# Entry
Amino acid sequence: VTVAVSLADKLDTLAQFFAAGMPPTGSKDPFALRRAAIGFLSLLLQNDLRCSLKDMLLATGAATSFDSLEEFLVDRLKVQQREAGVRHDLIDAVFSLGGEDDLVRLLARVKALQAYVTTAEGANLLAAYKRAANILKAVDGVDAAAPAPADLVREELALRTALEAAEPKAAAALSVEDFEGAMAALATLRAPIDAFFEGVMVNDPDQGKRAFRLGLLARFRDAVTQVADFSKIEG
# Structure
């Protein structure tokens, strides 16, 4: 009961000041709204409260200030977690996917992501993702289901096989909030994607081969994006 009352008090205070157009500005925070936000977030996280931030904000009735208050709370979360050793870009990478505003679950995913991308294997997968995304960015109308040519090379076959195994494993792990399991599934893509870039010319003159190879890269990008928007990750 005390946690519920404290949450309601802090959230109501924040909502009313934001609705009145009186958010903190710069270093000025005369009504200690940053402290109220940190207190609100700490209560959620320390008590492992599984709830939708959007639903809580909507319940205040301060609809006109919804977006700005949500952004303010997410910024406070980044500050709070940065002090705890969690990277802000990884919070962005998970939050920007959309559909995730359970902060307890979000941080569990962020911490699993941080544990992985700070390894050599994770750094290599991130580099491969960015290379694939840059290639795809320059191309219109990529078909992830483009048919395979009759003469598949070893690297194409290895990447396709790895994707067929990793995609459902990552999705299944995410469905039960096994974020470490999802990272482990993605980790199996690192060697085949490296070999693919080493052994295959993506922009082959043959239109069929080119379409299939771009499709593989699109599947790789989409598989990784199940976990987080890797384009938001620094490095």
